[in-house]
Amino acid sequence: MASGITVFLTTFLVYSYIGGAFAATFSIINNCPQTIWPASLNPGGGAALQTGQIWTLNVPAGTAAGRIWGRTGCTFDQSGSGSCATGDCGGQLVCQASGAIPATLIEYTLNGNQNQDFYDMSLVDGFNLPASIAPSTSSCTTVTCSKDINADCPPELKVAAGGCQSACAAFPSNDLYCCRGQYINNCPPSNYSQFFKSECPQAYSYAKDDQTSTFTCPGGSDYNVVFCP
C-alpha cells in the first residue's frame, strides 16, 4: 500500500426495512496482531483493517448466499488494485467475486425460511485465519474457530503463501474429496475433512457437513465477525 494504512470502506445502498424484514449490520473486527483485508460478497466490498479496527457492513434484508472472509499479505495502490497472498479476489480491494483458496469463510442468508437467518463458518475452501461470528441475539449460537490450523496443517495441504488448502484443491481429481461423481449425493467425511473438524468442530469441514455446522437466528439480528478471536 501507499504510506500509512487507510481503512477503505465501500458504501452500499441499504434499506433498513424491506418487505417486513430488517436489514442486518455486520461489524467486522480485526483482533489479529497484523493488518488484514476483510472482504465480502453479496454485497461486494473490502477494507484494510489494522489491529483493533472495525469495518461496518450493512446487508439488505433477504440477502442470500452472502459471505465474508479475511485476506492476508495484501498490497494495493491508491486505485484499489493489487494482490493478496490469501483470499485474493481478482486483485481488487473492493471484491466483486469470491476469494481464492484457502480462505476461512463466514456464510449467511438473511430472512430465509420462517424469517430465520442462516449462518455458518466454512473450511470447505480451507483455512487462512481464525474467525468467529456472534449474533446480537443472546439465545443464538456463537460460532468460533480460534485455533491456528496453519500450524497443524498436513504438509500436503500447506500453501507457500500461507494457509491450509482443502483436500479438493490439493487433489482436484479425487471425487471423494470434492463430493462429486459417485459421491455427489452421499458424500462421507474423509481423513482430511476429519482433520479440519477436529480442529474446529463448529465449522463446515466438507460439503455435506450440514447437521453440525448450520445455525439459525431470528431475522433482524446483527452480527460481530471477529478475525483472530
From TrEMBL:
Disulfide bond recorded as keyword: yes
SMART domains given in the database record: THN
S-S pairs: 32-228, 74-84, 89-95, 140-217, 145-200, 153-164, 168-178, 179-187
Disulfide bond found in the keyword field: yes
Biological process according to GO: defense response
Keywords in alphabetical order: Disulfide bond, Pathogenesis-related protein, Plant defense
Family: Belongs to the thaumatin family.
Name assigned to this protein: Thaumatin-like protein
Originating organism: Pinus taeda (Loblolly pine)
